[in-house]
Amino acid sequence: MSMNASDARRWMERFFAAFDREQQALTDLDRRSGDGDFGANLRSALNRARTALATADTATPGDVFDVVSTAFLNTGGTSGPLFGMWFRHLAKATRAETVGVAELARGFADATATVQRLGGAKPGDKTMVDAMVPAAEALTAASVGAPGDLREALTAAAAAARSGADATADLLARRGRASYVGEVARGVLDPGAVTVALLTEAACP
Ligand code: ADP
Ligand code: MG
Ligand code: MG
């Protein structure tokens, strides 16, 4: 199994739908650990992405991710530019008519390294990086040796992202607004990490 531009569009549509269901919960998480605008920030980015995709000419998965990237880069908040750069680097690695585990593994790895470089967060700092790193590692593990099945690889990446997101509840934030409130945010999932889990889960219906 490989991924073409239509598959990438369907992935993004499933992600938009998952976000529609979870927007309120994500807003509540940011209200308890930050300033409560996370859901609104994401809503405006995803609405722009949806509108732009409706008329965009997309020949490769990379073209689809570029449209989503631009929508995020034009969004406020800390998460907008970081997700924007994540998608930009995923796009760079996926500019072929069809892509497989190797391209997605490289895309996730480069994208995640960029977010870490820009935001300075390491795994364990209670940010989106806590879900991005395990997802990228799962894809990389699936890409070594004999080329693995893409669906299996994405399923493993989604499980890794979800456990990374779940683990943020116990962490004390060292980056972003949640770091200002210290122990108050203990027990609260990081909304950015939960969003990465939703995004990765949407890749494997
Ligand atoms: P803001 O705090 O500016 O209101 P958002 O609410 O849009 O930003 O996004 C908050 C999310 O951004 C957090 O849940 C976290 O995942 C992520 N985040 C914050 N700071 C960083 C950072 N330095 N590196 C990576 N991710 C970060
Ligand atoms: Mg916020
Ligand atoms: Mg804000």
Short description:
This protein is mostly helical.
Describe it.
This protein has 205 residues and is mostly helical. It has a single domain (5-202), classed as Serine Threonine Protein Phosphatase 5, Tetratricopeptide repeat (Alpha Horseshoe), CATH 1.25.40. 69% of the residues lie in helices and 0% in strands. The protein has nine helices and no strands. α1 (5-33) packs parallel to α3 (61-73), α4 (79-92) packs antiparallel against α5 (101-119) and α6 (129-143) runs parallel beside α9 (191-202). 50% of the residues are buried. The mean pLDDT is 96. Bound molecules: adenosine-5'-diphosphate and magnesium ion (2 copies).
Name given to the CATH homologous superfamily: DhaL domain
The N- and C-terminal alpha carbons lie at a distance of: 14 Å
Overall pLDDT: 96
Strand count: 0
Could you say which overall geometry the principal axes of the C-alpha atoms support? globular
Number of helices: 9
Number of domains: 1
Specify the CATH architecture: Alpha Horseshoe
Unreliable residue stretches = none
Helix content: 55-70%
Largest sheet, if any?
Answer: none
Computed structural class: mainly alpha
- Into which percentage range does the β-strand content fall? under 5%
Name of the CATH first level: Mainly Alpha
And the CATH topology? Answer: Serine Threonine Protein Phosphatase 5, Tetratricopeptide repeat
Q: Could you say which small molecules are bound to this protein?
A: adenosine-5'-diphosphate, magnesium ion
Order of helices and strands: HHHHHHHHH
Rg, rounded, reads 16 Å
